[in-house]
Write a structure and sequence with these properties.
By secondary structure, the chain is mostly helical. It has helices at about 1-10, 15-35, 40-70, 70-110.
């Protein structure tokens, strides 16, 4: 769930789309500047090929980020919270028992 939220936030940030768009326009500019060296069909296939390669690289970068995402801190935080809740429940139970013992002691003294 944490990894899914992280990856969804990363995808929604638009950084990968910006990367692909930048590569697309850089390739387009490259082919326009060097138009005398390439035919229009070569330009189209070159631009499409570079865009597809950049999309593949983006997917690999995303999978690498997800793979390297460290959950140890989150796991420790959840463990601490669970233990804290457990200790609080035990303390509350102890105070109830102490109060009950005091009430029993007062009723037995009378």
């Amino acid at each position: 769930m944490v990894v899914e939220r992280f990856s969804q936030n990363l995808i929604n940030s638009g950084i990968f789309r910006l990367y692909i768009a930048t590569g697309f326009f850089a390739t387009l500019i490259f082919f326009v500047i060097n138009a005398d060296l390439f035919t229009p069909l070569e330009m189209i296939f070159g631009i499409m090929g570079v865009t597809i390669v950049l999309k593949g690289i983006t997917n690999m970068m995303l999978s690498l980020l997800i793979l390297l995402f460290n959950l140890d801190n989150k796991r420790d935080e959840l463990k601490f919270k669970y233990n804290e809740d457990k200790i609080d429940a035990m303390l509350a139970e102890l105070s109830v028992h102490e109060a009950q013992n005091q009430v029993d002691k007062k009723t037995s003294d009378k």
